Amino acid sequence: MSEKATDQYVDDVLEPSDKESQPPTHEIEFNDAETKRLLRKVDWRLLPVLTALYLMSFLDRSNTFDHEEDTDLKLVGNARVAGLDVSLGLSDAQYNMCLTIFFFPYALFEVPSNIVLKKLKPRVWLTIIVLAWGTVMTLMGLVQSYSGLLAARFFLGLTEAGLFPAASFILTTFYCRHELQIRLALFYSAASIAGAFSGLLAFALDKMEGVGGLDGWRWIFIIEGLMTVLLGVLLPFVMWDSPQACTFLSTDERAYFIRRLQLDYSTGGKDGTKFKWKYLWQALSDWKIYLSVVIFWGNTITGYGSFIFSLPTIVNDLGYSASSAQLMTIPIYVTAMIFVVVTSIYADRMKSRAPFVIYPYALCGISFIILMALPKDKWPGARYTVLFPVAVGLYTPLCAVVAWNANNLSGSWKRAIGMGLQITLGNLGGAVGSNIYLSREAPQYWTGYTVSLVILVAAVMSGILLRIFLRQSNAKRELMTEDEVYAKYSAEDLADMGDKSPLYRYTL
């Protein structure tokens, strides 16, 4: 971006109230050593907070049911092994409904949540939702009936809806486009840690059976809920709202850091700071987001079914005890976490996203075919081994597709709404995934495996198509020089165009 373009560009991250204290944005000389030093300072203060939040979110949902991003299904999976369904007298249909109902409020409130996030300070909004979901989670340990669990699951979905889209968007306000995926991976790896830790924690808490006259599965919910509430109490003191608010950076360091963001996200025009309905329409009408949703479904439909909910049950079906089934999920999640981080490092270095979506899903699909072909009455070790590449193939693409979508949405309002929309529609796949692994089909699970395989193929094809379309768009934009662009469009026009600006280049 030339000096002409950058002079016309005003920070697309900061609110007007922030700009009053904005450090000067004179031309700054950038160098790699200084950039890395400042990124490390921000990393150590921002990422642990967001990661802890997502860790608790994933734990809370997976011991009873959920996502994400991405989660919950595994907790309910763990609680089910610990006796939840027997204690409450749930039929398979009732149990599946308790899993499914979470996703409807969860999906409906993700986009509105990101709009509220833009109007409130991040630490204010995040504190509200963390305290709310921690309270719901704690009370879930006291439910006495199907209707009570159903209501608790609904409100858990409502209160947790804002976390993943909010945290993902917040990362885009602190990091340049090709620094984003590794930070998303470190944040999202909390899901993999939670997958391992929730099995270990559920194993330990299940041993509290009878303490206080409560079942072991109730203590899973109560203890994890109270841990979440504690985190919410601490949040206002450890969360940073924006690069402007980072008092641990000097004035010159903030100027340096913010200028990098200005240049990286520039479309050549001045981004609006107030909400306009056209920003909502720009996101709703963007075809890129819908292709990214199909890619997202490769994780949620397949992941919610095969891993978050079914993994403890599948391992148990291999002939191991319930306690062993909990513990044997740990190495699988740890392996997935390692691959998520390593591949994200390479993705940012290569400034590429498509290969890190397409190839992992292909690996997962091949592994599913092998899993379907293996005899269900023997070779339990082989079936268990195949779960490792399935996990790697499932978890790796999610950070890539969220980063890919964020990289290709410009204008802070469109990016906030578009990321929320992607995650909203993507998480609806969890409602499908929670109902495709049927206990009556154990241990074959033909419906679950077949649906998972179909959606994986669709995700791979969507990734290929998205890359082709984006590459063609970039090629057309290269045909215009910057002077020709400014001769044809005003700064206001370019701002209104957002990522459709001829000066903006898509990440492939």
List the helices and strands and how they pair.
Blueprint: H1 3-8, H2 16-19, H3 32-62, H4 72-81, H5 84-88, H6 92-100, H7 103-108, H8 110-119, H9 122-140, H10 146-160, H11 163-174, H12 180-205, H13 216-238, H14 251-264, H15 277-284, H16 287-309, H17 311-317, H18 322-328, H19 330-350, H20 355-373, H21 380-407, H22 412-427, H23 429-433, H24 446-477, H25 482-488, H26 491-497
Helix pairs in contact: 3-4, 3-11, 3-12, 3-13, 4-12, 4-16, 6-10, 8-11, 8-22, 9-10, 9-13, 11-22, 12-18, 12-19, 12-21, 15-22, 16-17, 16-21, 16-22, 16-24, 17-18, 19-21, 20-21, 20-24
Q: What percent of residues adopt helix (DSSP H or I)?
A: over 70%
Cα separation of the termini: 19 Å
Task: Detail the poorly predicted runs.
Answer: 1-26, 65-77
Please report which band the strand proportion falls in: under 5%, 5-15%, 15-25%, 25-35%, 35-45% or over 45%. under 5%
What's the CATH class label?
Mainly Alpha
Relevant CATH superfamily: MFS general substrate transporter like domains
Instruction: Determine the CATH topology.
Output: Growth Hormone, Chain: A
Would you tell me the structural class of the helices and strands?
mainly alpha
What is the rounded Rg?
23 Å
Sheet with the most strands, sense and barrel status: none
Per CATH, the architecture is Up-down Bundle
Specify the overall morphology: globular
GO molecular function: transmembrane transporter activity
Keywords: Membrane, Transmembrane, Transmembrane helix, Transport
GO cellular component, one term: membrane
Biased composition (Basic and acidic residues): 16-26
